[in-house]
Amino acid sequence: MVIPLFDRSPSGIVFDAVGTLIEPEPSSTIAYRDAARRQGIELDPELVRDRFYRALAADDLNPPHGPLTTDESYERIRWRRIVAHCLPEIPDLDRAFSELWEHFARPSSWCVYDDVEPALRAIKRLGKAIWVGSNFDARLRGVVAGHPVLAETLDSLVISSEIGFRKPHPGFYLNACKLMALEPGDVLFVGDDPAHDVEGPRLAGLRGGILIDRKRRAAEQIPRALNLVELADRIRARIDHN
């Protein structure tokens, strides 16, 4: 049985960026390993990967204005701390941080998932507002601008470091709705993180969130689509039904 994702078609859709529309290429693990290798340090990729995800899980210990708050300057502090946690053996932390900061600012360091172009273009034809809502920083604007399908289909971006709140803070979602000039009940969030992109929007009073479950790992009760094309098809079906 197909579980309905929404009772009526949303007016606007906010897509998460990393893990939903784009992914790093090469992976973050390899990029960090290579930064260490350039300083003569050889690290096991699995060790780097474990450190990276542990650092991400504990990366909000000292936010500037309370839990899940941020700004551009704090993002540099936060990511420098993550690099230090991942690569404690390297002799020049500042060099590695600068290299990695610049690496992930380049569009060429990111690839767009195969289902993104057909899905976003289909949703665009339906007349929906399409935004990105991401726990990134201003570098994301350059990344999006460097990928034609994103630059051509996205209306704008909501970036945590620019609005002061990180998902899943309610302020992130409500600011997104305000910037879109839409009521929360008319906005749907879409992403790959159950807490950030499904539960967070729901608790903030939005229409809800949809999990993109490409690897088929989510619990069945979570509103989900297996890919973005399926999501676009179900939005079109809902419009036709209404």
Would you write up a description of this structure?
The strands form two sheets. Strands 5-4-1-6-7-8 form a six-stranded parallel beta sheet, sandwiched between helices. The radius of gyration is 18 Å and the shape is globular. α10 links the parallel β6 (187-191) and β7. The protein folds into two domains: 12-23 and 109-241, 3-Layer(aba) Sandwich (Rossmann fold); 27-107, DNA polymerase, domain 1 (Orthogonal Bundle), CATH 1.10.150.720. The chain has helices at 28-37, 45-57, 72-86, 93-103, 116-125, 139-145, 148-153, 160-163, 170-180, 194-203, 228-241; strands spanning 12-15, 22-24, 110-112, 129-134, 156-159, 187-191, 208-212, 224-225. The chain contains eleven helices and eight strands. The mean pLDDT is 92. It has 242 residues and is an alpha/beta fold.
Task: Give me some keywords for this one.
242 residues; alpha/beta; Rossmann fold; 2 domains; two-stranded antiparallel sheet; 11 helices; 8 strands
Oligomer: single chain
Query: Could you give me the name of the CATH homologous superfamily of the largest domain?
Result: HAD superfamily/HAD-like
Please state the average pLDDT score. Answer: 92
Order of helices and strands: EEHHHHEHEHHEHHEHEEH
Name of the level-1 CATH class of the largest domain = Alpha Beta
- Give me the number of helical elements: 11
Which band does the percent of strand residues land in?
5-15%
Helix content range = 40-55%
